[in-house]
Design goal:
single chain, 196 residues, mainly beta, OB fold (Dihydrolipoamide Acetyltransferase, E2P), 2 domains, 13-stranded mixed beta sheet, 1 helix, 10% helix
């Protein structure tokens, strides 16, 4: 009987721990105010959010680059949707650290969007832009990149890059009490928006 009670107690504790585990979220929006270490952000759906920054929160700023300058084996993330012919069409291309996870997954930028984190196998000019062949562990993707598609990298920055009116993309965690803590903030700079 004691074993049953102990097992039940362990299950309750485990379930509670999972219920209280922080949830990872992505936030896209514009800073409306800064109050000490708290950012007030208007998300893209109009929701007003309070986002806490800690000493561990990192900040980076966006910088435009040329797609043609990305070499073979560059590690990038490409947000895309399928075109009428079934070929993926890029919404944006951005450099990412080689420590990031590889793969092709759903993405929450818009309905039907995907994210491909992979190495560039080829980057060729076509009649309607450029075309990337992306290679990752377990697969490949061919992605069409129309002219005008944002292509960005990020540069390390500090909190001085953050100000009202600046557009940001954040990786954050939501605690059980709904407190939002930013892990990484990527900020607009000189009109160049961060990867989304």
């Amino acid at each position: 009987m004691r074993c049953v009670i102990a097992a039940f107690a362990l299950a309750v504790v485990t379930a509670t721990a999972f219920a209280q585990a922080p949830q990872n979220v992505r936030i896209r929006g514009t800073i409306t105010a800064i109050d000490g270490s708290t950012l007030l952000v208007r998300s893209r759906d109009g929701t007003a959010l309070k986002v806490r920054m800690t000493e561990a929160t990192t900040v980076a700023t966006a910088r435009a680059i040329a797609l043609a300058d990305l070499p073979k084996d560059a590690f990038v993330g490409v947000t895309a949707v399928k075109g009428p012919d079934g070929v993926l069409v890029a919404r944006e291309v951005h450099t990412i650290p080689k420590t990031a996870s590889q793969g092709h997954t759903e993405w929450d930028l818009e309905p039907g969007a995907s994210m491909t984190n992979a190495f560039i196998e080829s980057n060729v000019q076509t009649n309607d832009g450029r075309e990337l062949t992306m290679v990752y562990q377990g697969g490949t993707q061919r992605i069409r990149v129309p002219p005008g598609t944002p292509v960005v990298t990020t540069d390390p920055a500090d909190r001085s890059a953050l100000a009202p009116g600046i557009y940001v993309f954040m990786s954050a965690q939501v605690a059980a009490d709904n407190t939002i803590t930013a892990l990484r903030i990527q900020a607009e700079k000189a009109g160049v928006k961060p990867p989304q």
